[in-house]
Design brief:
Layout: E1 3-8, H1 12-26, E2 31-36, H2 40-43, H3 49-52, H4 59-66, E3 72-76, E4 90-91, E5 99-103, E6 111-113, H5 117-126, E7 131-133, H6 139-147, E8 153-157, H7 158-163, E9 172-175, E10 190-193, H8 203-218, E11 227-231, E12 235-240, E13 243-248, H9 252-266
Parallel strand pairs: 1-2, 1-3, 6-7, 6-8
Antiparallel strand pairs: 3-10, 4-10, 5-8, 5-9, 11-12, 12-13
Length: 267
Amino acid sequence: MKQIKIGTRGSKLALVQANLAAEAFQKLGYETEFVVVHTRGDANLKASLSEIGRGAFTDVFAQMLAEGELDVAVHSAKDLPTTADRDGFACLPRADARDVLVSLPGKELRRIGTGSPRREAAIRRLYPQAEVLPIRGNVDTRIRKMKEGQYDALVLAMAGLNRLNFQDDEVLLSPLSVTDCVPAACQGIIAIEGKLGQAINHPATAQAAQIERSCQRLLEGGCTGGVGCYFDGNILFAQKEGRVAQVKYQGEESILELAKKIKEVAG
């Protein structure tokens, strides 16, 4: 039985995601070993995600794969740089792609925490009375800060909460529709980099990932762009700087049509 080395970050969510990939490989007869890596994104907890940029949690894995230190690396796909040279990853089946407003019941929403320009733009449109404040840290840290009174609500990814089996009777979860807050490209998708990842690839999810990444590139959306792109298998949704549009996806030309619609909304 062949043993493979799986690269992963050491956060609770990263290890849950790595375990899902390991289970898929084990069903094919592989033995798996985790190689836990501390990334520059983990090392810099003061700067915002928009400041440290895409790749902060994933670049080191690309080097380790190239040097043969890993067989595959497992990431949240939305953390990967959106450049075309990083398109060749496999995917596990997608989880719930939506964002979710996490709040304390009965609390007036005056301060909402998020580190995402995309989420900030959506929240400013949905809750114009609220101040949007930056936040970093894992789910437990963010929830603790909210309960301490630093925030009245947070915006998090539904997929992460579900994978962590998050349960807390003290907080209220209010999922945001994809038309109110378009998810980040590849949100809810676990990416497996490395050739061996194709053995466990989920084709429909991989197709959605590539469409969304193409859309994000066209709309010039990195971590600082405030861009969301989401494909539900039929409709492609996009958000840029708070503006939202959608088209029925019929190939690459649909992305161009969507970009034009976004500009029309701005006009």
